[in-house]
Amino acid sequence: MSQTRIRELIVTPIAFGDPPLLNSNGVHEPLALRIILQLVLEDGTVGLGESPGGTTRLERLQAAAKVVVGMDVFDTTAVAAAIDAALLPTVPSSHERGWTTSAVEVACLDAQGKLLGRPVSDLLGGRVRDAVPFAAYLFYKWAEHPALDGRPAITDDWGEALDPAGIVEQARLMQERYGFRSFKLKGGVFPPDEEIAAIRALAEAFPGQPLRLDPNVAWTVETSKYVARELDGVLEYLEDPTKGIPGMAEVAKESPLPLATNMCVIAWEHLKPAVERHAIQVLLTDHHYWGGLRRTRELAAVCEAFGLALSMHSNSHLGISLAAMTHVAAAIPNLDHSCDTHYPWNSADDVIVPGVLELRDGEVRVPTGPGLGVELDHDKLERLHRRYVDSGMRGRDDTGYMRRIQPEYELRLPRW
Ligand code: GKR
Ligand code: MG
């Protein structure tokens, strides 16, 4: 048994390129942060994990690395409990601790799969689909990161998208490059009527293809009701139009559209009040904060019990996360909507060896190799780690970056 014991957890912060994507908080910075985990077993097997970045998450993962040494990689319950106990004195929120345990659980499952020669989806009960559908994640965006403090402008091959025509063009590119068959627009950037016009333009350009809009709580309850009425019959769901379970419940009373969230139901204790108040009809799950892949599958069963539909949330991420999302989505029978992914925006800087994960026809085929089925590119990891060190960036700050470019920018939520 000793070969299944954890010898070391290597925690590597990295920085990778990100285009100037706009949202209700400002704009994405030229770099995004993630943390890559390598869980090394006594026999040399390595399990991979990926977590959102930033100093806080890094320090917590480093604390986790100290307590998991010597534990059995198959004992994920004990591994999570040990990490939880280590973090408890300084991190009172179980949701917050969940980010750390989740990332380590994925690395444990990858290692388990490698030991057994079975894909992670098998460890989650087996896949119910061979390919997982993803939606094109559309963003209003600038043509480039403007030149700043001596750094030249950074361009990309997506171009500008600041009006309905720009959004439709971006959607066409997404479809051409990846074959997406459903679309999500990140809203909360322009006055609601402009975003309604963009959605209508998408509906005209892509008839019959599911559409969703997510302004990340940029609207009041009244504005949310207005948008829901205007887009009745056009959207499959409206995501986080307004803040909190009480606000969403107010909107839901009159909304002809289902409401979805990845903001007001993000922990187990939020489920009861959300269900009691009929605040949401669709839950966007995310294994990075729901406690890992097994807990995500359990969450899917809870959603089924309460008649909530299921979709999946994404943040800027790389291939280890995409592999984990794909395995768990493959093992969830009641996945009702295509999953979100930022991958097209960031995949050029991935840390995994290309070839296994491919977005084609709007889907990712579930890797069938052992574990997550993806392999780390160590040179790339080293380069992206260097970039992290050299950048001095230690957290995400969409608002601060926006203010450096447009000093008059004010963060207001709700804004409309
Ligand atoms: O990348 O700007 C972004 C998104 O707004 C992201 O931060 C959100 O977490 O994609 C997310 C969402 O659906 O709310
Ligand atoms: Mg969202």
Structure explained in plain terms:
It catalyses: D-glucarate = 5-dehydro-4-deoxy-D-glucarate + H2O. With 416 residues, this protein is of the alpha/beta class. The protein folds into two domains: 6-118 and 378-391, Enolase-like, N-terminal domain (Enolase-like, domain 1, 2-Layer Sandwich); 123-365, TIM Barrel (Alpha-Beta Barrel), CATH 3.20.20.120. The chain contains 14 helices and 17 strands. The protein has helices at 55-68, 76-87, 94-116, 120-123, 164-178, 192-205, 221-230, 244-254, 268-276, 293-305, 319-330, 343-346, 378-391, 398-405, and strands at residues 6-17, 22-23, 26-27, 31-41, 46-52, 131-133, 136-139, 144-145, 154-155, 183-186, 211-214, 237-239, 259-261, 282-285, 309-312, 359-360, 363-365. It has a seven-stranded parallel beta sheet, with helices on one face. The radius of gyration is 21 Å and the shape is globular. It starts with 5 loop residues before the first strand and ends in an 11-residue tail after the last helix. The structure holds D-glucarate and magnesium ion.
